Structure formats: structure tokens, C-alpha cells
Amino acid sequence: MPQLISYIAPGAPATRRPATGDEAFLRPEIGFTPRWYREAVGVDFGERWHTDPGYRLSGLKAMGEELRRRFPGCNIGRSEEPGYPSDLLTGTFGALVVAGIWGLPLRYDAGNWPAAEHQYLTDEQADALEPPSFEGNPFWQALMAQVEWIASYVGRAEGFLNWQGVLNSAYRLRGQEILLDMAVAPERARRIFACVAETMAEGARRLHARQRESGVEVGFFTVSNCLVNLVSAGHYREFLLPHDQRLARNFGLVGVHNCAWTVDPYLEAYAEIPNVGYLDMGLESDLGRARALFPDARRAVMYPPADVASKDPVQIRADLERIARDLGPADLVCADIEAGTPDERVLAIVEACREISGR
Length: 359
Known about the structure:
Layout: E1 4-7, E2 15-18, E3 26-32, H1 34-41, H2 47-51, H3 53-70, H4 97-101, E4 106-109, E5 112-116, H5 123-127, H6 138-154, H7 166-174, H8 177-184, H9 186-213, E6 221-224, H10 233-251, E7 254-257, H11 267-270, E8 276-281, H12 287-293, E9 298-302, H13 305-310, H14 313-327, E10 330-337, H15 343-357
Parallel strand pairs: 3-10, 6-7, 7-8, 8-9, 9-10
Antiparallel strand pairs: 1-2, 4-5
Helix pairs in contact: 7-9, 8-9, 9-10, 14-15
């Protein structure tokens, strides 16, 4: 079965992309926060970064040059590829594409990803919720105008928007009340989740169709379950699993981002999702069980940025060897590395992965 691997474009949150089949046994994927790049090369990640692809292009060139200078031969952010940068789409609006389609005001930051303003649905609004229309939707039309510009300038509309997961976006719409809704107003919760899932799927279908016209085939979907640890395994199975299953069937291949949480309570339910090509988890997970349940998927550990910055190097090496032994072949995802983390620590992790992989 085809696999997906972790992908962290410069300045973007972690997402997934298709595997090539020749990945290292323990493959590092390194990513830095927007603040890291702002301090390194002065890039401004405010509103213009997310609304002007030409402006992003100039910033990405500077970011790629800095990555190549500080981490030669490491291919961080795909910065060693000829013709870089060709991906001007990944990271646009951070993790808030769905929130933007729903009309939530976005707050921008020169050194961070955008955040959604806290304007939560009331009970009455939630009970009457319907999916937003894409026709005439100001946010969507402006976003697709960027895709048109990219396709014209680069020749291909490469990249991947971050559609998040059903619970993530429902939480942005409803706030913590969505967690109570599952217990005391289950039909309301189901309505919100269904509307969010339909919006995710419709947006992805429309984007993929335009990308296909430009010669880019995106034949997968990523589900980001960053908030799954806020719900029980039972509630995940009852309320959220059906949507993840439907997205997997509709898009043919799915990556499941469990974030850095322990995956153990959700593994059995995740195993009921068809066509899983990628699954990540926290270091404290039962890695052997995850490998047994997902033998055909590319597996990954989300390694915390605090560990990259300050954990004893001997312990880091032990962690990497355990990941390779119990979960491999696998990705080691070192995302959200902050400014101030010594480059030598990043380089040491990359070199340790090479040694463990025998490359």
C-alpha cells in the first residue's frame, strides 16, 4: 500500500506528503517555528505572508538559503531540491483554513502562526448549523486566487493545505462546550462534527481538482487529531471515528496525525480506519503494538522540541535506537524547534539517524 511521510515545509506546521519508497530506516524530519526563522532571517509571518504568495516566495528563498548554510546536506524543508522553492502553498493560513472558510476572524503574528479569535457558537447557533457555501465565500475565493497565481508563476500548484481534524476545527467553532456536548447534547455534537467534516472534504476536493488541472495529483488526506487526548477512546469511536473512516474511503489514502500524545487508547479504533498510510504518536506509546497493528503504514514519533533542546545526548540516542528497534522503519519528527536551540543538537540528531539507518 502507498505510504505517506512527515513533511515540514519552512515556516509551516507539520503535514504529510507521499513517500518515495527509498526513505531511510529512521528518517528525521526537522522543522522550526516561525519565530526561529524570524530571528534567523527576519521573515515577517504576519497577514501578508498568508495572503500574498509572491511575498512568501521571497521569504522562502531566504529561509532555504539559511537552512542550506546551517545544515548542509540535511535537506531540511526540502531545501536541497533543485528549483527550490516550488511549494508556495503548504503552510498558508497555518492550521486555520477550515476556520477561515467558516468566517472566523484570524489574528496574525509576525513571529508565529495565525490564531482564530474566540467567537464560539451558542447552543442555538450550533443546533441550526449548516456547512458554509464555497460559492462566493470570500476567504475561499481569495485562497483559490493564490492557487491560481502559484499555478501560473510556478507552472504547478504544488503543496498541501492543513485541513486539521474534525475535533480540532469543531473546538475552534464551539470552544470547550463541544466536549460537554458529547456528553449532554450528543445530537448537537454530531451535527457540528458532520458540518465540519463535510467542509473539510469539500474544500479538499475543490483544491485537489484545481491542482490536478495544473499537473499535481494529490491522492490522499491527512486527519490531524491534535486534541484527541481530550476525549475518551469511547467518545472518539462514537463521534469521530466514522468521519475519519469516511475521509479515508473518499480520498483513498489517509495519514493520521495523533500528535505527541500517547496513542495507546486509540490504536484499536485507528486500526478500523481503511487505507492508513501514516500514523504518528508520542514517545511513551506502545511502539511495538503500533507497528503490529499498522504494518503497512509509515509510522512516526513526534519528538518534543524541549527534548531536542535540552535532553541529555546519551538519552536522545537511546530514544532514537528504541524508536528504530520497536517502530521502524519510521520517521522521527522533530517539529516546532524554537529559536535558541543549538544547531549542533539538530545536526547530531540527523547524524544519529544516519548511523542507525546504516547510511
